[in-house]
Write a structure and sequence with these properties.
It is built from two helices and no strands. The protein has 35 residues and is mainly alpha-helical. It has one domain. The longest helix has 12 residues. It starts with 8 loop residues before the first helix and ends with a helix. The model has no long low-confidence stretch (mean pLDDT 91).
């Protein structure tokens, strides 16, 4: 998150959820289930 230019993990998670409608951990879990 910090490497991407966000001030904190919480800010990154909020932006990620706005963009993808799920949290980063939910996204990772869904990708794991599909492969």
């Amino acid at each position: 998150a910090l490497d991407s230019g966000f001030n904190s993990k919480a800010t990154f998670n909020r932006a990620f959820k706005l963009y993808s409608s799920q949290t980063p951990s939910e996204y990772r879990k869904s990708k794991r289930l599909k492969s």
